[in-house]
Amino acid sequence: MGWMADETGLDKNAANYVPLTPLSFLKRAACVFPNDLAVVYGDHRKSYSEYHDRCTRLASALAAMGVKPGEVVATILPNVPAQAEAHFGVPACGAVLNTINIRLDVDTVSYIFGHGEARVALVDTQFLGLAEAAIEAMEGDGPHIIEVPDPAHGYPASGKYPTYEDVLAQADPDFDWIMPQDEWESLALNYTSGTTGRPKGVVYHHRGAYLLCFGTVVSWRMTLRPVYLTIVPLFHCNGWNHTWLMPMMGGTLVCLRDITAKGIYDAIADEGVTHFGGAPIVLNMIVNARDDERRPFDHVVEVFTAGAPPPAATLAAIEPLGFNVTQVYGLTETFGHVTECLWRPEWDDLPDEERYAIKARTGVLMPMMEHITVMDENMNEVPWDGHTTGEIMIRGNSVMKGYLKNPEATAEAFAGGYFHSGDVAFMHEDGYIKITDRAKDVIISGGENISSVEVEGVLMKHPAVLLCAVVAKPDEKWGEVPCAFVELKEGQSVSEEELIAFSRQTLAGFKAPKKVVFRELPKTSTGKIQKFRLREVAKSL
User: Domain AMP-dependent synthetase/ligase, which positions (predicted)?
Assistant: First the structure.
């Protein structure tokens, strides 16, 4: 047995074991990088000591409002400094951060407020109407609102609620952060844009976020003091955890409220942006920018792209402009990206077409993950033959705790000791994964998942509609948009414009169909609609 049999006195203690949490990155940065630039947003330029002070004050203010450890604080904010500060200040009072998608409809926000039991909500002035209507629609008490105005962008304070800056000014700067006693404690709550029915509440733990940050630094080949541009919304997998990792590197977070080609080019030229993440739609926006929106810069910008594989034509157009694109893949349930298309030197000299086809692969697992593979329905790994498809299965430290208040869905997602992604893929001969179909019917528009089932459910409520099927139609700007195929009831009529307007009454704008085609739907002998045939039609529209 050797000496290992006797480990007397070799226990964990305060000196040798501290629960992992991304909160530690900002505590360290306040000491190590106190005067380095931490957050930039127009005239708002804060050093790490100021950033730490503001997050401390937010934690103190929330605690003073009665928020207890384990309770939820929500945000309805674009990528502004308050949203970054919430990522540290909310968990620093022991609470769980719930960033809500600003593009959602009233009914869904109301459901999320109720299901997550948010005590307080930080709300941008632009979205006050959404938050108020959502609270009004709730059965119980809704969250208390702290208003976050943005006068420089045309959103001055409404005067109805305490404002964020006033709340910080009155808070205790000496508040002692409440660090997790256990790294498995809940850090964040993110709602999926569920493929069926209500969105599910995905619960993140401190350990997973901490390790994803380290894995990202390795995979993105980051060196000290990167300058990161927030294009990925911070309500989307907490911005893929990038805001949590910036203090670790002494990096600068550049906030971008409205994602435009001009805004991106200006940030690269004026602030020296070195890294950003974004869906392929963002790459298209950069490629198709007008001459008057472009700015010269003389460094290579590293880009993580995810949400859908980037088209070869897009990669061929963007790389000569000064961007090095790496495709990554993940889900809300995996804290963001967990695979990367790790580049191999032997691919450098391949013809462009082949290089860009390789760049569109889903790739291999990132360093903080244990095993990511493709399995058949019996959970056997598919052969690495470049064509046999199965489901992407994921195991590792950056996988959610589970779905809030939904043990059945959690057990189903983790059956057999892997997280079941629902994404269909095959394995190349070298072990690189390639997605063939995102869980078949999910439409990915501008990086947001849209459930075809949800859109169909709304259209079916129109009195003239007999049957409908919604599929993805390729779109130059958004990547994909919903396209509806509709069979009308006999003797009934409705125009395309009327049907789209009808769907927008209950659906978020981005979920509403952008095209409606009236025709008989192709069906199987048992009456199931053949969506694969409609996808082909949508491609040719």
Answer: 27-404
